[in-house]
Design a protein that fits this description.
single chain; about 375 residues; Aspartate Aminotransferase, domain 2; Aspartate Aminotransferase, domain 1; 7-stranded mixed beta sheet; 5-stranded mixed beta sheet; 12 strands; about 35% helix; about 15% strand
Amino acid sequence: MTQERANKTGFETRAIHAGYEPDAMTGAVIPPIYASSTYKQDGVGGLRGGYEYSRSANPTRTALEGALAAVEDGVRGFAFASGLAAEDTIIRALTGTGGHVVIPDDAYGGTYRLFDKVAKVWGLDHSPAPVADTEAVAAAIEPGRTRLVWVETPTNPMLTIGDIEALATVAHDAGALLVVDNTFASPYLQQPLTLGADVVVHSTTKYVGGHSDVVGGAVIVRDLELAEKIAFHQNAMGAVAGPFDSFLVNRGLKTLHVRMDRHCDNAERVVAFLDADPRVTEVIYPGLTSHPGHEVAARQMKRFGGMVSFRVAGGVERALAVCERAEVFTLAESLGGIESLIEHPGRMTHASVAGTDLEVPDDLIRLSVGIESVEDLLADLDRALG
Ligand SMILES: Cc1ncc(COP(=O)(O)O)c(C=O)c1O
C-alpha cells in the first residue's frame, strides 16, 4: 500500500502499514534492521534516498518514525533512545534559555527530575500545577516567559486527568505550546494532537513497545516548523533510537490496538474486584464514575487504559507486603508490557520526588495490568492482600 493511502486508513491499518512500503529490491514485508552506520554515496553528495549517516537517518528508524506520526495524526515523528531523551530534546529545542514551563504536580518522577535537577541548572524555571484544574494551570503560566505547558494525562501514578482541549486553549492564549506525555494512554486510546496539543511525547518503552524488551522514546508534532526544530536537535544532540530498538518498537506498535483492548478489559475486572474489597481504601482509575476526571477522560479517551492505582488499609507496611507477596504480578518498575507488574511508587518509581510537592502517598500501589488470564490476576491480588 502506498504511504499516501496508508495515512488515510483506520488506526489499526495505519499501525500496521504506515511508515514503510515493502522493500523495492527484496519485497521484505517488514522493515529490515539496517545495521549500518553509514551509506555509500553515488558521487560526493549523491545520497540514495537521503541516507548519509545513521545518527541523521536510518531506514529502520524512518519506518518507525513514519508509523508514529501516522498513529498520532501528526506531520512527523521522531524516535529516541529513551522517553527521557525525547523529553530532553523537546526541552532544548523548544524553550531556549531564561524561560519557564508549567509541569504536572504529579508528573512521572524522572520527568520532574529532568526539569528540577537538569533544566533548572541551565536557567529554565518550572512551576508544578494540578493538571486536572485548568484554571490553576492557567494561573501558573507566566505570560511572555512560559514556553511550554507540559501535561501527562493520565498522570503517573495518580491517574489524574487533564482536559487537553482546554489546556491547549490556555497555553495558546499565553503564547505557549502544549506538550502532552501520552505514555499512559497510548495513541490507540488518545490522540492529543487532534485535541489541540502541539507536541506529543512517549516513553515507547511502555505500551507502544509493549513487551518490556526495549527502552525508547518518541516525539510527534503537527506543525512543520516545530518538526524542523526537533529534527535539528535530534541530529545535533544524537539521542536517537538505534536500528534494533526501532525494529522492536515498530513491531510492538503493529499490535498496540489488540493488546490495549485486552489491557483495558483486564484492568476493568481488576478495578471491580479492588473496589469491592474492604482491604482497599481507595481505587484510582479514570473509568470509575467516582474518579474526578471521569467525564473528561470519557470524552478524550477511547477507553480508560491498563493502569490502576490503589491504596490499602494498614499503611506503608501493608502496601510493601502486598507488593512483595504478589506472584503473577511481578514486582518491578515500568509498565505497559504484556505481563502484569506491581510496584510501590513511593519507594520505587517516584522515590526521587520524596519530600517535594510531588510526593505520593506511602500506602499507594500501582498496577500495570497485563494481558494474562484475568482469573489468575484476581486470585493473585486476593492472595497478596493477605
Ligand atoms: C509517563 C512517563 N513519561 C516518561 C517516562 C520516561 O521514559 P523512559 O524510561 O523510556 O526514559 C516514563 C518512564 O517511566 C513515564 O512513565
